[in-house]
Amino acid sequence: MNAVTICGKEYQLCMTVEAFDQITQACGGMDKLGSYLDGDGDIREMVSRTASVLAVLLREGEENRRLLASFCADGDATARKVPTEAELRKLLTPRQLVLLRPSAIAAINDSLRQEVEAAPAKSGGGAEPKSGSAQPG
Predict the structure, then answer these.
(1) Distance (Å, rounded) from C-alpha 67 to C-alpha 88?
(2) Does the CA dihedral 130-24-38-64 come out positive or negative?
(3) β-bridge partners, 9
(4) Residue 99 — left, alpha, or beta (φ > 0 → left; ψ -120 to 50 → alpha)?
(5) Going by C-beta distance under 8 Å and a sequence separation of 6 or more, which residues neighbour residue 65?
(6) Which of 14, 34, 109, 126 has its CA 20 to 30 A from that of 71?
(7) Which residue, 117, 134, 115, 118, is CA-closest to 126?
(8) Are 68 and 75 in contact (CB under 8 A)?
(9) Which of 21, 102, 93 is nearest to 54 (CA)?
(10) Angle at 88 between CA 87 and CA 90, to 5 degrees
């Protein structure tokens, strides 16, 4: 999972299904995400949209961490405060926010990567995908 450090604290970023829905709704579809994050060529929009996307990924990263701790009985399930979009805008300079952009993009890209494991086909020739399990985080 991807992480960022804000004001000396590390926060996880997670592109959950909820984050996917919110971000794709904001940008008008996954195919428009790159242009959206680039602010359609406007630096002010780029900074603003980065703050928005980062806030979603931070919120979902914390919720994912908390739920995993609760469901898997592994770690502290106590909710921790993460910066909201409004707080990010007041805590960070535009430069600091832009420096966090690659981590946000990596979190999105990592969540969409497909890993396919092949198993021998039942007929003996070729291979067919094996069904897997969904391991969160």
Answers:
(1) 24
(2) negative
(3) 6
(4) alpha
(5) 12, 14, 75, 80, 137
(6) 109
(7) 118
(8) yes
(9) 102
(10) 65
Q: Do residues 40 and 50 make contact, with C-beta atoms less than 8 angstroms apart?
A: no
pTM over 0.70: yes
Helices (H), 5-137: 17-27, 33-37, 43-71, 85-91, 94-112
Whether the CB-CB separation of 27 and 16 falls below 8 Å is answered with: no
121: which 2 tokens? 């086909």
Rounded distance between C-alpha atoms, residue 102 and residue 81, angstroms:
23
- Residue-wise pLDDT tens for the chain (137 aa)? 799 999 999 999 999 999 999 999 999 998 999 999 999 999 999 999 999 999 999 999 999 999 999 988 777 889 899 999 999 999 999 999 999 999 999 999 998 886 666 666 565 555 544 444 455 55
Residue 122 CA to residue 101 CA, distance in Å, equals: 45
User: Which backbone phi and psi does 4 adopt, to 5 degrees?
Assistant: -130, 155
2 DSSP β-pair partners: 13
- What's the chain's Rg over C-alpha atoms? 18
Q: What tokens does 60 get?
A: 């979902």
